[in-house]
Amino acid sequence: MSEQPAPSGTRIRVWYRPMVARGEHEQHRVATTLELLFDLCFVVAVGQMASALHHALSSGHIGHGVLSFLMVFYAVWWAWFQFSWFATTFDTDDVPYRLAVLVQIAGGLVIAAGVPRAFEREDFTVIVIGYVLMRLAGVTQWLRAARTDRMRRPTCLRYAGGIVAVQILWIARLALPHDWLLPSFFVLFVFECLVPIWAEQAVGTTWNRHHIAERYGLFTIIVLGETVIGASAAIQHGIEDGQHLGGLISLAVAGLVLVFSLWWLYFDQPGHKRLGSFRTAIAWGYGHFLIFASAAALGAGMEVAVDYDAHQTALSSLPAGMAITVPVAVFLFFVWLLHIGPSNACRPIAIGFPAAAVLVLASSFSPAPVHFAAGITAVLVAVTVIATRGHPVE
Questions:
Q1: 312-331 b/e (C-beta count within 10 Å ≥ 16 → b)
Q2: Would the pLDDT of 253 be above 90?
Q3: Where is average pLDDT lowest: 10-14, 170-174, 385-389?
Q4: How many distinct helices (H) and strands (E) make up the chain?
Q5: Whole-angstrom Cα distance, residue 332 to residue 276?
Q6: What confidence tier does 4 reach under pLDDT thresholds 50, 70, 90?
Q7: Rounded CA gap, 183 and 244, in Å?
Q8: How far apart (Å, rounded) are the C-alpha atoms in residues 89 and 278?
Q9: What is the DSSP-derived secondary structure letter of residue 271?
Q10: 3-class SS at 304?
């Protein structure tokens, strides 16, 4: 079946379309419904991780819980990262492309199924199986692009070869002694991050900065939404017990203000303006690991705060408070670093974000860290509104 001409800004679905790079400045480029489905399925794994982190923190296993969370979250984030950047260049939306994405989604769900074993037994076998499944499905996409996009064939083959090599190492890692698992994880983490940098040195792929910024923004919203879901479930459980009703309602209001403020601050500055070159774009993309992870960890922190108010955890006030304040501070700092910048011409905003992050951390020692964090972020929102009045965002 041959491809028919399409009106400006639209694409006609066909059974097969040669996979060639899409235009870097393609107009009206927005996230597809398949990308939205991909995000929705991946957030299942994010919810599992946040729940597991909550239980680990409430049980007092803070170091183990945080480390396991970051390692498992990396698997989801990196697969999402690779899919999103590939799609911005080579999304053909034909049948083979959709089927390959289906396999990647299945891999994400396998990762979600392996989260409990990873946290409870430090057994990452299921996680690795799901991760490798997703990555190898991505390899088939790169090989397909290498076949039809002659100009970028060297880049596509570098991606495919690099990904396969690292996946072999991930599988081999499962046979290593327990003491080697953590150091080997960080080595392979570095290898994974180096593959795109090495591959892009051949012939740079095209990527649409508006599309990439939208994709990251949508995933930020989804992860923040998971925070609301987790906190709501915990508060509902507390209300059903019929105790601490006033405190839980107050906590719910503070949590809602906090999430709304973080959403406002993330989207106050247009992200696409920070994507001027591949070097800045790759740093921007990698840096979002901590934005996404902190947003997901905030959901676990809210559940810990509910447990603390309902006297259902042995944690003292300081670590219970830090379960909220540390993710919020990390989120603020990296939004400032990636979206605002220390040299931003608007000094109240350039200074306000890191100052707010420090104040949020300091609120860990207060009697109501969630409420103080919500108040500080709300004030920062007010500062950004006042500082940018009369300067509409493009």
A1: bbebeeebbbbbbbbbbbbb
A2: no
A3: 10-14
A4: 12, 0
A5: 22
A6: very low
A7: 44
A8: 13
A9: G
A10: helix
Give the residue from 331, 354, 328 showing the smallest Cα distance to 341.
Answer: 354
In angstroms, the CA 238 to CA 102 distance is 38
Tokens of residue 352, six digits: 């306000």
Q: Answer whether 257's CB lies under 8 Å from 374's CB.
A: yes
Amino acid of residue 268: D
0.85 surpassed by pTM: yes
What pLDDT is attached to residue 345? 62
How far apart, in Å, are the Cα atoms of 31 and each of 139, 153, 215, 339? 22, 25, 7, 20
Q: What is the pLDDT of residue 312?
A: 82
pLDDT digits (tens, 9 = 90+) for 342-351: 767 677 888 9
How many angstroms separate the CA atoms of 378 and 30, rounded? 30
* Dist CA 324 CA 134 (whole Å): 32
Residue 386 and residue 380: Cα distance in Å, rounded? 10
Percent of residues, the chain, with pLDDT higher than 70: 91
Give, rounded to a whole angstrom, the gap between the first and last alpha carbons of the chain.
Answer: 41
As a dihedral over the C-alpha atoms of residue 233, residue 236, residue 238, residue 240, rounded to 10 degrees, the angle is: -140
Cα–Cα dist 303/306, whole Å: 5
Residue with tokens 């989804």: 222
Are 93 and 11 a contacting pair, CB within 8 Å? yes
CA angle 262, 267, 269 (to 5 degrees): 120
Q: How far apart are CA 269 and CA 192, in angstroms?
A: 30
Distance CA 227, CA 236 (A): 14
Residue 214: both structure tokens together: 């939208």
User: SS3 of 275, please?
Assistant: coil
- pLDDT over 60 (residue 392): no
Average pLDDT over residues 360-374: 94
- Average confidence (pLDDT) over 200-219: 90
244 band by pLDDT with thresholds 50, 70 and 90: low
| Residues 248 and 254: beta-carbon distance below 8 Å | no
- Closest to 131 in 3D by CA, of 189, 190, 184, 85: 189
Burial class (CB within 10 angstroms; exposed 0-12, middle 13-18, buried 19+) of 123: middle
